[in-house]
Amino acid sequence: MNQWMTEQIHAAHSNRIEPREQAYYDALFEKSKARLESLRAEAPLHEGMDIHAALAEEGMDRRDFMKWASATTATLMLPAMFQPLVAEAAELFNRVPVIWTNLQDCAGNTEALLRTSAPTIDELILDVISLEFHEVIMAAAGHEAEAQLEDAMATFKGRYILAVEGSIPLGLDGQYGVKGPHAETYLDHVRRVGADAFAIVAMGSCAAFGGVPAAYPNPTNAVGVKDVVRGKPIINLSGCPVHPHNITSTIIHVILTGQPPALDNLMRPRFAYGYRIHDNCERRAHFDAGHFVEEFGDHGAKHNYCLYKVGCKGPMTFNNCSIIRFNDGANWPVGVGRGCIGCSEPDFWDKYAHERPVAAGVRMAPFGGVEKSVDYFGLGLLTAVGIGIAVHATASIMAGKKDEENA
Amino acid sequence: MTKKHIIVDPVTRIEGHLRIEAVLDENNVITEAYSAGTMFRGIETILKGRDPRDCGLLTMRICGVCTGTHYQRSIEAVEHAFEITIPKNARLVRNLIQGALYMHDHPVHFYNLHGLDWVDITSALKADPAKAAAEALKWCDTPYNASVGHYRKVAQRLTKFVKQGRLGPFANAYWENKSYKLSPEQNLVAASHYLDCLDVQRDIAKMHAIFGGKSPHPQSIVVGGVTCVQDIINPARVAEFKSILNKTLDFVKHAYIPDVLMAGTVYADEALAGIGKGVGNFLSYGDFNLDDLPFYESKKLFPAGVVYDFDISKCYDLDQLKITEDVTHAWYKGSEQLHPFKGKTEPEYTGYRKGEDGFAYLKTEGKYSWSKTPLYEDRVMEVGPLARMVIGVAKGDPLITEYVQGFLKRGNLPVKVLFSTVGRTAARAIETVMMGEEMLKWCDELAANVASGDQETWTKFDFDRVSRDAEGFGMAEAPRGGLGHWVKIKNGQVEHYQIVVPSTWNSAPRSHKGDRGPYEEALIGVKLSDPKQPLEILRTVHSFDPCIACAIHLVDTKGKTLAEYKVSGACDV
Amino acid sequence: MSDRVRIKRMTPAMRIIHWATVFAVIVCVITGYYIAYPFYQAQISVEATESFVMAWNRWGHFISAIILDVTAIWVIYLYFFSRFEKPYKKLLPTRANIVEYGRVVYNLITLNRKPKGFDTRHNDSFNIVNFAILHLMLILMLFTGLQLYVHGFGSGHSAIGAWWPWMLHLVTDWTLWAFGGKVGVRVVHHALMYGILAWAMLHIYYQIWRTIFWREGDINIVFGGEKFARKRSA
Questions:
Q1: Both A315 and A188 in a single domain?
Q2: Which of A26, B94, B522, C149 reaches 20 to 30 Å from B47, CA-CA?
Q3: Which sequence positions of B are flagged as catalytic?
């Protein structure tokens, strides 16, 4: 199936939120409880790695931990009754092995993972999480790395979470990307490792939608995970790179409920991607007021005006950056006066990532990079109509007023 | 015992996808080595036809580790083409953003990527915390986080971790290999800094984000200047930046440098024997403008230059026209050496050879890598921190010479020690301290300039006029070495784009003359203490800090013609 | 003028719909243009809470859209159940309709030099097909517009209850599928504006041309609701 068709089919899922009754949450609660019990029964991967001891070392007591759990419960859009379960899931985090594989990537999502906000539990959990295979971090290489992967896949068959970073090239029979001593193509690799996974998490926009390599003209025919893997729960955590907070929250949800969180029509968790950046933007007041930055460094730029005219795509982009910002809340792209480039949306390289307003710069791939194609098309149409009218009118006048009476 | 041919794929703890193959003699000494990039995306093809102002964001996604450096190079290439000189505030902020990347990248590389080649985590468990604290004091008067109590805690934490069975990222590694030479106490000191660094680097990344918006992949640089005027004119932001920088410098001076000295001393014999010395030709494009002249006329923190054959008594001026790219052993069509402005290459994939043991081997007699072979005056060159330090010294740059000599004197090491695996690692550390201290000055310069009333951050230009027909290049230094972007612009669109990346210089396959690439050359003569454990290979390759996603790219191929080169069953030859 | 008779062509309701549509389309085009390219800045001396330039433009855009919304429903109703004339009858591809359509086009391209061969006293199928095209464009505009509008209801709630975004999604999510995602929907919404403008140009020209060359006072239909027609000599 070609990529376009797959896109269409995924887009066909409705984005509407079905109202949820208490009964739904009660059922989910029971399900989660049963799941945590079964997890607890499993042999722990990290004997003696008690999260509370680890937290105490970092100066975080039980109270802080419960506060964190309550905030995470809210992030996940679950009712407050789930709070003890979230805390319990965090404690059981080390029961869930993660295999992280890098394909056509830039390691940006790995770097993002390293930068989880301080001073926090998220980082600790990553300390405690069983990261079985991650090329950028692991000590072993070559055959030993391969053996480690095999071992993790066999030991945790059907239980591990597969994190995929990077797109998958289909061109050249997949030979644009190969790995391991057997020179296995990324396509075979992701299908093989994905087959025994509990769930697959596509980290970043490349793994989710093809991202950078899939930008026009997509020289390697790169696609996202959802285009090549079937029959597994897939969660797309898009973003370039994905916000680490969304990684940890998603994994907690999977551990807690044994199922992916509620997803939108692009298979992204609704708790993170349900909101438009624009609607929570600190510069929104200036948008409504009609205060715009006309060019970088002007009066408006110095006064935090809205960046819509210099190409901010916040009005078209769904993500929680405007709420949680980046790097421990240090800043974010709208904060630095550049604006959003829509990095969590499909095809953003061709449609969003430029310095012109949303309406002005749609790159229509089939026409080979003609920008403003809508306005060009429209003005062309109006001109053609105008010329047509002028010709007809002139001809009519020349012909004179004749009709059936004096014909 | 006959010659052994070993494969290391994937090479881990690097950015990107790299394969190393090596041939060992009966003494387990490497006699032949091949380096191959195994992943291809076609970034330059994607750039064609785009608005030149948008290329920076896309080229940045070449790499998430050296994030921001491609971004800035691309923007500089376009500014060079448009003949734009950016305002002082923008220059300083760009220096700070780029400098923050050095400050983040180098320690993370040393501890979290490269460190496990030197440090045996399991040996650290045997260490006596009190002795470890004494050991730390040997290398620094005020060592970082070095109380007996802290070391005890780290040892306990590691013991717990190792005992619980699944080792996660540390599983299946080369622990207890003979080539780990540090004492248990030294291992504990370094291991504790491994954990400290994981913590500190998060703060360092915040520096990147203060002016860049986020890290990785900052977003505040645009053709003409920077956008973060709000953060520049706010003194609190500069102060915040400076405070994190000071913390970082504390870590660098009291953990990173002492640990490099420690490792350097323990491994000094190998370094003096020239293990991993490499090709000996060094190249630096120069970077970090110190005044507000146009980009290539400005005085720079790192001077540009060329040194051949380890001879630091002579330093030649850089001429970008002498750079060519060779594809004799790369999976692209053609065999000519072309300047990046002319480079016309199309993929020609020849696949792997299937060995009798079932593994796939590189066809080393022909094309075997997605990485090209960049040449300067027809010679393979090494780039990176070592090249920058070597050229700084060869050119007599007072600042660099002072830092390099200071380091060598402190460790009582001769200059020769630099030309080795250890030396490459040391050069990186020296550079980090120097960068941090210069950045502090830039912070003050920025604050003073803003306070004097200068709030300019962007130079206006008439895009339609300047983009009619222009060409330019952005050549400067990434943390991993000289990075160049060459761009030709016509009628507001990119007509030709070519990138020559530090890791392409370093990870290059053989040249048309048969000269080995820097990784390949550096591996020659490396002895493996256990041929089943490629620890020494990893150590030498890691000393270059490979970044392979950067290294691989393609020019000028229309997407549709790629189908022509489709090969089936490439592996069955 | 004894050879002419008055003919009623538009009821007051139809004229209200016509002018409401004209008004709403003009407002939508102007405000839509501002939304796409905010071409003037608010007075900087005015505090944000008082200027609301973009907010008012968007408000105008949405209000006009609602007017179009309501009239669209009304028009669809009238297409089938109007007691004055039922336009759908002229849309059916019957032989008579096709012949009439051909003759009107022939009259137009021959610059009214040949006998008309169709009845100018009633709305002809050419006109009705044209109006149907406009109405289809307007309805598509509404679906794409509402899809863009519902993006703001990320939480699934609104001031008037969860049913509203839920219903908007239910009714408009197919546009995401049809046009390949949010950008596609936006492109269609933008491009259709040009379609409607082009249509309006043609429409105005054609009605004026008819008035001048047919000499039956067609232009009055939309004002007074009536036109003349000659008594058939035959």
A1: no
A2: B94
A3: 15, 63, 66, 70, 480, 503, 547, 550
Structure tokens at A294: 């006309």
Q: For residue C207, give how far its alpha carbon lies from the nearest alpha carbon of chain A (Å).
A: 12
Report how far Cα A200 is from the mean position of its chain's Cα atoms.
Answer: 13
**Do A404 and A312 share a domain, yes or no?**
no
| Bridge partner list, A235 | A201
pLDDT at residue A43, as a whole number: 58
Secondary structure class of B20 (helix, strand, coil)? strand
**Which of C49, C177, C191 faces A374 most closely, judged by CB atoms?**
C191
- Is any Cβ of chain B less than 8 angstroms from the Cβ of A338? yes
Q: What is the CATH number of the domain that holds B153?
A: 1.10.645.10
* Helix, strand, or coil (residue B9): coil
Which residues in A lie closer than 8 A to residue B113 (C-beta atoms)? 136
Would the CA dihedral through B485, B489, B492, B497 be positive or negative? Answer: negative
- Kind and range of the H or E run holding C229: strand C226-230
Structural domain of A297: 275-371
* DSSP type of residue B271: H
Tokens linked to C208? 């004026």
Using DSSP, state whether B399 is helix, strand or coil.
helix
Closest among B136, B14, B12 to B64, alpha carbons compared = B14
Question: Cα–Cα distance between A286 and A295 in angstroms, integer?
Answer: 15
Place of tokens 């095209």: C133
| One-letter identity of residue B109 | H
Measure the CA angle with vertex A196, ends A191 and A199; round to 5°. Answer: 90
Which range scores top for mean pLDDT: B40-49, B153-162, B323-332, B539-548? B323-332
Residues A279 and A242 placed together within one structural domain of the fold: no
Three-class SS state of A69: helix
SS3 for A236? strand
Tokens for B185, please give them. Answer: 């106490």
Q: Name the residue among A275, A289, A377 with its Cβ closest to that of C52.
A: A289
Under 8 Å between Cβ of B289 and B528: no
Spatial distance between the Cα atoms of B541 and C89, rounded to a whole number of angstroms:
80
Q: Do A and B touch, counting CB pairs below 8 Å (3 needed)?
A: yes
Q: What is the pLDDT of residues A88-120, one digit of tens each?
A: 777 766 667 889 999 988 888 888 888 776 445
Mean pLDDT of B526-550: 82
